[in-house]
Fold:
Amino acid sequence: MARVAVLGGSFNPIHYGHLLLADDVLEQLDLDRVLFVPAAAPPHKAAAGLAPAADRFAMVELAIAGHPRFAVSDIELRRTGPSYTVDTLQALSASGDTLFLVIGSETFLDLLSWREPRRVASLARLVVIPRSGSAFDPESAAAQKVLREIGVDGGFVRVEPGRPLPPAGVVLVHATSLPLSASVLRRRVREGRSLAFRMPPAVIDFVRTHGLYRTEPA
Structure:
């Protein structure tokens, strides 16, 4: 049975920030694999400006090529309707692997707006990444309310080098954060500006070759 981090998102496009975060989580939690899961139809994001799902999947494939413990799944692309995380975790749990769901701290605070958040927390252990420069406080009333509502015992726990992870609780991982955002990268494409050192060269070539992000979303 493998220990697998599930990293979902639109990846519109994937960039070095995503990859560095995934590598940090892999190392700090001593996992077997990070599974990237591109969303076909993210329920919390507008479709305007979203590259075709097949293109976003292909860019993730290119970005992780050669990394022995990175993988990508098309599970949400093969499913019709909105890409609800609870459905994805339910399907992935059939493998018997121990699942860790990686989300940002802002997403965690918004978790109660998700479909079946309590079920999400029962299917995978939550791993929360505080955004660099954010004021996320795990002891705040907002954070504690989410913990209560999703029924997680053990509160927030931190990774301590050389010590086993406590058996319960939401895991806080302070991963390396690069000042990159997909929206800024899309704007740079429209403006004809450099993408170098922000995305893997193969992804840059794919964006250029397929004419992605050239126009302002309607």
